[in-house]
Amino acid sequence: MTTAPLRVAVLASGRGSNLAALLQARSRGELPAEFVLVGSDKADAGALTLAREAGIPTAVLDPRRFPDRVSFDHTLFERIQESGAELLVLAGFMRIIDGAALAPWVGRMINIHPSLLPKYRGLHTHRRALAAGDLEHGASVHYVTAELDGGPVIAQARLAITPQDDEQTLAARLLGYEHRLLPAVVSYIAQGRLALRDGQVLLDGRPLATPLQWRDGALDR
Ligand code: GRF
Question: Which listed site, 48, 89, 183, 191, has its alpha carbon 20 to 30 Å from 143?
Fold first, then answer.
């Protein structure tokens, strides 16, 4: 039986390396997804260039042209709705989204965050992990809720912090893991294996007690 590819929209503010990883996974045949829209709040985002090169429709909205956050988010989510997306992926989208705008998308919207949530919500996660003397660091993919970086975590990738690490080396090494973690989670969603119900992540219909872990090149319970 073949099912239709999952229609995915991506929001990104920056270089778009996570978007690139998703597109590469699709090209390799590892991601049954169709990218219907890449949206950004930054006209010069690398993610937009990648999207154009890949022939994906783009939407650029300049926040300065809107009177407030609510009207920006309302317009942005109208565009996403019109794209026919079934899943919305935040891949380096550097804006806090209005709770009312995102409410209809809870359970259909994920974010990748460079920390082992619930540790280090917000910015400067690598610096904070180093300053705390942590022995490990990681990335999390979570369902988005109105609480910033606070939605139920689906999956994580971990790496050991070495004495030689600084903020740049740690960020660079972690990014390599992000590029494998995010496509793996989107692939699970495309296969219908993940859901959010009553604030609880379900895998294959069963509650996930702890986030899936990226181990030996695959997601593991
Ligand atoms: C990544 O580190 C991601 O975890 C965070 O923002 C960064 C985006 O990088 N949310 P890129 O634009 O995908 O290269």
Answer: 48
